[in-house]
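Q: Convert this sequence to structure tokens.
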Amino acid sequence: MEKIIWAFIVGGLICVIGQIMMDVFKLTPAHTMSALVVAGAILGGLGLYEPLVKFAGAGATVPISSFGNSLLKGALEELDQHGPIGVLIGIFKLTSAGVSSAIIFGFLASLVFKPKG
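A:
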């Protein structure tokens, strides 16, 4: 039960940071998402994101910052095995399932629901 509470708190704090970026600093949603992805990659590169994932579980893996961490993690894993071309291989290999799912489910939802206007 305690893990669920921490997941809620950490995930909520990441979302609050994003909301503050939009409200206070007047960043667009695209700029905010990009900043959170980059922040996740930087924290992952510094070795700080994985301990956060172990501590908060889904509270750290669901927000967009986790995507940046995943990109960096995949790139570094394949860099060791394949050299510089491994950076691209790793990015696509590790994140392709999530991106593909988003595209497929988005398409299926567009078949069921009709946009207004």
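The radius of gyration is 16 Å.
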